[in-house]
From TrEMBL:
A Gene Ontology cellular-component term: plasma membrane
Residues in coiled coil: none
Protein name, entry field: ABC transporter permease
Taxon lineage: Bacteria, Bacillati, Actinomycetota, Actinomycetes, Propionibacteriales
Domain of life: Bacteria
Family annotation (SUPFAM superfamilies): MetI-like
TM spans (from-to): 29-49, 89-108, 120-141, 147-168, 189-210, 246-264
Annotated compartments: Cell membrane
Amino acid sequence: MSTVFADEKVMARGRPDGDARRRVDRTRAWRLAGSAFSFIALIVVWQFVVHRGLLSRRAVAPPTAVADALWNMLGTAEFWSTLGSTVRTWVTGLLVSIAIAIPVGLVLGGSDLLYRLFRVAIDFLRTIPPIVLLPLALLVYGATQQTALLVIVFGSVWPLLLQTMYGVHQVDPVAKDVAQAYCLRRHEVVFDLVVPSAAPFIATGIRIAATMSLLLTIGTELLGGVPGIGSKIAIAQTQYATIPTMYAYVVAATALGVVLNLLMMRLERRALSWHAAHRTA
């Protein structure tokens, strides 16, 4: 009985009480209110600066004109087709990066020799700006999705690869010794010990790679003419009459980035709900 009561006390200590929940809810509410206030203040300052002529309307459209252009765009099939092209390129590039980086990272991180041999080479390659590959990709593939994928994968694979290597390399050696003592098979060690231990590192790497992939997607569309939001921004920038449209696409790209980041964070919390950093009562 004493054991049962002890277990109940431990569970009670690990479970937040009503006051703690209310404090967390109030903190979240204040953060949300602060974010909303900052956003509204930014819009007001933007409108004031343009209205007063402190910034030329030929270069900066007022928020009212941008909102009107965005509202009109939302009702067109062209906008959703453009948005779909960007999202499709982003998803494809991210999935290819994941398919390359995680298996290679598990192999390199699981061997001290390979970790030391390839660490310097990876550090050198990841310092190369991905956008420098754009001229070469345009010569080979033209303004197509393949061009964007080449740039996206080259830029996104490194943070995920390094995070996976770090995660595998940081696996508790005592846990490895226990697995060896129990004569676990190689695949059992990988899937039951290495992958769960490295999962937080891998999740962080995927989130970083997702952000990098989106930035490179829009960048290649903007500079290389690959179909998507970026190319629409470049086209709208060439004429004064379409400046509000350009900013509307910029706002759409920003909203897309925010939504995708929130989605990745939610997926990370759900996938790692067992981890101490994401555990909820």
